[in-house]
Amino acid sequence: MEERARVVFTDGDTAKVVLKRSSACGENCAKCKGCTSEMTYVEAKNLIGAKVGQEVILEMKSGMFLGAVLITYVLPLIALTIGIMLGTNISIPIGLKISSDLLGVTLGFVLMAATYLFINLIDKKYKKAGKISFRIAKIAK
Known about the structure:
- The protein has one domain.
- The two termini are 18 Å apart.
- By secondary structure, it is α+β, with helices and mostly antiparallel strands.
- It has a 5-stranded mixed barrel with strand order 1-2-3-5-4.
């Protein structure tokens, strides 16, 4: 995965860069009025010596990016689905006097929230270990 960014700070072989999040409307936000142009700051390895103010191309391994997408979006959806299925199927056999649909939705959201907490812990651990990292590949022209 490659993204265009601007260097805002350097410290040795590390740089802080700002990149504009891509929008769903193809960067023509005036037409859809549904998105905001959020800027995201990330740290990147600066092995090419990019300087503050330069436009650069950031690189992240595609496998790492796809894994992050899978963990961030698919895992919580699976947890929600499992929670709903469990909740709707266990209320009657264990004798709970609560609507099976209500229990299913509640359990689904609880499992989804627990998954997001788990993802947050993994994210912090991976960042400390340097497993999730951006690298400045080249200076943009």
